[in-house]
Amino acid sequence: MTQVLAAHAVPSWLEATARERVRALLDKRSFVEFIGPQQRETSPHLPLFELPCAFDDGIVIGRGLLAGRAVWLAAQESRFMGGTFGEVSGAKLVGLLRAARVSAQLGAPHPVLLALDSGGVRLQEANAGEIAVSETIRALLDARRAGVRVIGLVGGRSGAFGGAGITAACCTVLVISRHGRTGVSGPEVIETNRGVEEFDAKDRALVWRITGGRTRTLMGSAQRYVADTIDAFRNAAISLLDGPATFDMNGARAEQRRLAERLAAFGECRDAPDLWRKRGLPDPERVAEVGDAQFVASWLASEEIRNDAR
Predict the structure, then answer these.
(1) Rounded distance, CA 155 to CA 150, Å?
(2) For a tag site, which of 1, 36, 170, 174 has the least CB within 10 Å?
(3) Of residues 243 and 93, which shows the higher confidence score?
């Protein structure tokens, strides 16, 4: 059941850096970083374009404890080239997911937390970035097949688009805030290829209505909606550590049926209020304006009505 979790701390997930999210998500002094900045594993491609490198290549990976439970964790840094997938950052993420799979096969299926904050592939690395995305998806699904729960967390500045959007869709469960956005193609890409009549990327209200966390929650793309605080994301992650981790053909067929039902129900919707109206939410033109608690209360009420009607 989708729900909003109250937070006890002020720090915003949206405003935090990747390292701030890692420190606040995990138990104090429990994080052990792999391939950290001191090892200086930087992109071999960016110097060719006379662009600066980051010593962690825009991603933090490692292991730690969450409420005393062992977890693997990766956090993308959108302040470095939009958190994009490059050869080094992709290899780090793939390595973490493979480590999680091997650990599960040895009897320790610790959950993986993916703090996604990326616009997709790093254009300067082209094919290397595309390969990194494909290997990430394969490694993620292999980990799930081995019994690893993969919990996606989306609420950052870049959202989760392109390869990150596909990665988010492959997670066992996805946590999102109203600031989180997901999609295969970003608004700018759609406008460039299909024209401003199809999608005006400069219309920020439209962008958030279509790709934002509330719409993704109503569509079933995200399973948990939270407030924009690090505590809220932490509480959600803790509550999701346990649960089914099976990944097989029966689950894939069930997901395909869900997507077919979603297309039949909402395929003609052109804007988010159309979707909210079909979901039976009151005053759909204002759903984007109300507070988190009021939004979720309306959503849960509409879910109860829909369930009673079935």
Answers:
(1) 17
(2) 1
(3) 93
